[in-house]
């Protein structure tokens, strides 16, 4: 009769049990966590792309002799706040940090929306090739932000569900005991206010004039503050 040492028997048991344990989803939680973090990196990339477009946008609007100092300043300040609030993959489970990040990005979306609504009253920008290029890039970036947020939310829901459902909840409470639910983007009013980048309806009746009901807040030729550096 063949006799096995206790060590060999233990090793054989591990070999037999490994496929069964793997089949119960022991690796599902870290796999889904990494997938959610990857989607978060996409979100950050698109928000950064939008932030990078803003200084050139502000300079282009200023260069067209548009006197909207207050509106331009609001965009610059909102951008500064948005870039100062960051959420890392390690803090995606921090509700307060995530809320601050979403609020700051939402404020920037609203500031951009107001700026782009105001400049519709200045037809001279319609022939500005740099502005038209920025219009196209901003529109594409806003679309990519929406897609990145959606993909991130889907990945996080999948991960969060694995922390609560059988059999992966067993591993969440034992082997992966440090795993915590991640935060989701909510459909706030600010988040839903994407900048309006359609300039087909420019008003040709008042070329170069300030928009009706909007009083310029600075003398002609005054420059808005420069956009903050990254």
TrEMBL record:
**SUPFAM superfamilies (UniProt xref):** LemA-like
Query: What's the name of the protein?
Result: LemA protein
Where is the secretion signal located? 1-22
Which top-level group of life is the source organism from?
Answer: Bacteria
Family, as annotated? Belongs to the LemA family.
Subcellular location per the Swiss-Prot or TrEMBL entry: Membrane
Read off the InterPro entries from this record: LemA-like_dom_sf, MamQ_LemA
Name of a matching Pfam family? LemA
Primary location recorded for the protein, binned into one broad class: membrane
Does the keyword section mention Signal? yes
> What topology does it adopt in the membrane?
Single-pass membrane protein
Q: Does the keyword Phosphoprotein apply?
A: no
Ranges of biased composition (kind: Low complexity): 204-221
Q: Which UniProt keywords apply?
A: Membrane, Signal, Transmembrane, Transmembrane helix
Q: Where is this region: Disordered?
A: 202-230
Q: Which GO terms describe its cellular component?
A: membrane
């Amino acid at each position: 009769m063949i006799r096995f040492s206790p060590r060999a028997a233990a090793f054989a048991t591990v070999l037999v049990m490994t496929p069964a344990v793997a089949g119960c989803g022991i690796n599902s939680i870290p796999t889904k966590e990494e997938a959610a973090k990857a989607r978060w990196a996409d979100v950050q990339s698109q928000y950064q792309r939008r932030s990078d477009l803003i200084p050139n946008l502000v300079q282009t609007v200023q260069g067209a002799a548009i006197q909207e100092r207050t509106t331009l300043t609001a965009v610059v300040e909102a951008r500064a706040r948005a870039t100062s609030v960051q959420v890392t993959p390690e803090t995606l489970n921090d509700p307060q940090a995530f809320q601050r990040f979403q609020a700051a990005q939402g404020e920037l979306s609203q500031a951009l929306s107001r700026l782009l609504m105001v400049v519709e009253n200045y037809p001279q920008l319609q022939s500005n090739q740099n502005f038209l290029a920025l219009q196209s890039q901003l529109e594409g970036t806003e679309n990519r932000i929406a897609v990145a947020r959606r993909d991130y939310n889907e990945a996080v829901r999948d991960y969060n569900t694995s922390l609560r459902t059988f059999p992966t909840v067993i591993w969440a409470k034992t082997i992966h005991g440090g795993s915590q639910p991640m935060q989701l983007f909510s459909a706030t009013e600010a988040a839903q206010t994407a900048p309006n980048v359609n300039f087909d309806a420019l008003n040709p009746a008042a070329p170069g004039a300030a928009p009706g009901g909007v009083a310029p807040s600075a003398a002609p030729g005054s420059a808005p503050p420069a956009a903050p550096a990254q």
